[in-house]
Amino acid sequence: MGSDKITAGANVECNDKEGVIGAVIKYKGKNCILTVYHLLKAGKCGIGDTLKIGEFKGSIIRIIMEFDIVIAEINAPSNCLEFSKLDKPEIGPAYALKGQIKNPCNIMTTGKIYHYLSFAPRSIPLPGDSGSPIIQNGSVVGILASIFYNNATAIAVSVELFL
């Protein structure tokens, strides 16, 4: 499958509302993806709803409201998935990934729940970029959750819960 594998940064869809896969993980022995809940909520998606993930289907198995995170099981064999390496972030350079587009950012603060990011004013993430993985040193260290256009900053949800 090679480049056709389901990876962090790829597209996920529920009821015609698109989101971004923040990470591909094993969760309680199941092949799963992480993304932000607010995008799927806009598509009126909830527990048990079907997601389209590439050529595969999945279903939402858990919503963690306080983190704005959805865990969805994907009905795909492991060899069709590129599992994400998860790690704790460090203050410094990173990037948000959507599809093949890398959007450079800086991690300004780190925490167990949220990290604060800064972007160049000309490359602020757009609506629909929420859910993008924040990648640093080859590992997913957060998932883009909220963007502040007035000062080119953003919040990423920590993946520490899944380490």
Explain this structure to me?
The chain has a 6-stranded antiparallel barrel with strand order 8-9-10-13-12-11. A 5-stranded antiparallel sheet has the order 3-4-7-6-5. A two-stranded antiparallel sheet has the order 1-2. The chain folds into 2 domains: 2-80, Thrombin, subunit H; 92-162, Trypsin-like serine proteases (Thrombin, subunit H, Beta Barrel). By secondary structure, it is mainly beta. 40% of the residues are buried. It has one helix at 37-42; strands at residues 11-14, 17-20, 23-27, 30-36, 50-53, 56-64, 69-74, 92-98, 101-109, 114-119, 133-136, 139-148, 153-158.
Could you write a compact summary of the structure shown?
With 163 residues, the chain is mainly β. The chain has one helix at 37-42; strands at 11-14, 17-20, 23-27, 30-36, 50-53, 56-64, 69-74, 92-98, 101-109, 114-119, 133-136, 139-148, 153-158.
Count of separate structural domains: 2
Which geometry do the CA atoms define?
A: globular
Distance between the termini: 27 Å
CATH architecture designation of the largest domain: Beta Barrel
Report the radius of gyration as a whole number of Å.
14 Å
Q: In sequence order, what are the helices and strands, one letter per element?
A: EEEEHEEEEEEEEE
Please bin the fraction of helical residues: under 10%
Reported for the largest beta sheet, the result is: 6 strands, antiparallel, barrel
Low-confidence stretches: none
Instruction: Tell me, rounded to a whole number, the average pLDDT.
Output: 94
User: How many strands in all?
Assistant: 13
The number of helical segments is 1
Topology-level CATH name of the largest domain: Thrombin, subunit H
The CATH class designation of the largest domain is Mainly Beta
Strand line-up across the major sheet: 8-9-10-13-12-11
How would you classify the helix and strand content by structural class?
mainly beta
